[in-house]
Design goal:
The protein has 12 helices and 10 strands. By secondary structure, the protein is an alpha/beta fold.
């Protein structure tokens, strides 16, 4: 579904005047997706693999995906592109292909020499923005991984991203880890021991119960939320913004955006397409460029 959504974003007029697309990947994949010359040029990765049938991760699908991502970074390194809009990736497909990186963000951080590169997640059309202090880790490890350095970097990157969007003094809130933000220590001590002192130091609202924080953010009380783990950010964001969420990697010397949803293999196999996130991703990248 990724190539079809990418084509849909360009055809929807997501790119501003002066920003032109280059489609990266095996030309056979783009042709199967319906690419036409009028859409823009294809930079062919020339793997010569037959495009796999949609519906499940495969080693060849992983190779095609990884090769297009690596070639996009090569274009950036050569100064031939100013930004990258990636499609959702299958971590299983990359693993089956022997690609050594687990996700886009890890590879982007290594490529750019930016270990603090941060996922900023949002629905630009709704004014919803958040960032996570931890990324793709098991839930049982979240409390152990949380520390002042990670949360401070997360808040700083989110504030910097919002300033790039024209918000001069971003109003940020810190979400609590536990239900009811710990209920004064009755339901966990992380808020009292770590989060409340840090919120005061960083001048963040909170820590707030995450359900309350998201309601207040949706009502315009805050410009963005500092979330502590993956689902604390993604579940509310997708519930409020549907399939229009964007993943923007801040802290890089170039622009990178991507749909915030996954590969949707079942939808791809059934021929269903909702390009909302691809359109939002292309529009945001174009705006930043």
């Amino acid at each position: 579904m990724g190539p079809r959504a990418a084509l849909a974003s360009v055809r929807a007029g997501a790119l501003v005047r002066g920003v032109s697309p280059v489609f990266v990947g095996d030309v056979s994949v783009w042709k199967r997706a319906g690419w036409r010359c009028a859409d823009g040029p294809v930079h062919d990765t020339r793997l010569g693999l037959k495009p796999p049938k949609p519906g499940r991760p495969t080693p060849d699908g992983g190779r095609l995906s990884a090769a297009s991502f690596e070639e996009s970074l090569n274009l950036i390194a050569r100064g031939l592109a100013g930004g990258v809009v990636t499609a959702p990736v299958s971590k299983m497909g990359w693993s089956q292909a022997g690609y050594p990186w687990r996700d886009h963000t890890e590879r982007l951080a290594d490529f750019a020499g930016a270990p603090d590169a941060q996922m900023v997640l949002g629905v630009p059309s709704r004014g919803l923005w958040c960032a996570t202090a931890t990324r793709h880790i098991p839930l049982k490890e979240v409390s152990r991984r949380l520390n002042a350095c990670a949360i401070t970097a997360c808040a700083a990157d989110l504030a910097a991203a919002l300033r790039r969007l024209g918000i001069k003094k971003p109003r940020l809130a810190l979400c609590g880890l536990n239900p009811h933000a710990g209920e004064g220590g009755l339901i966990g001590t992380e808020e009292r021991a770590l989060l409340a002192p840090l919120a005061r130091k960083l001048r963040l609202a909170g820590p707030l119960p995450s359900d309350s924080a998201w309601r207040l953010h949706a009502e315009g009380e805050f410009d963005g939320l500092v979330c502590l783990y993956h689902d604390q950010a993604l579940i509310p964001l997708k519930a409020l913004g549907g399939l229009a969420g964007v993943n923007w990697t801040s802290g890089l010397p170039f622009v990178r955006t991507s749909p915030a949803h996954g590969t949707a293999y079942e939808a791809a196999a059934a021929g269903r397409l909702d390009p909302a996130a691809a359109i939002e991703s292309a529009r945001l990248a174009s705006r930043l460029l």
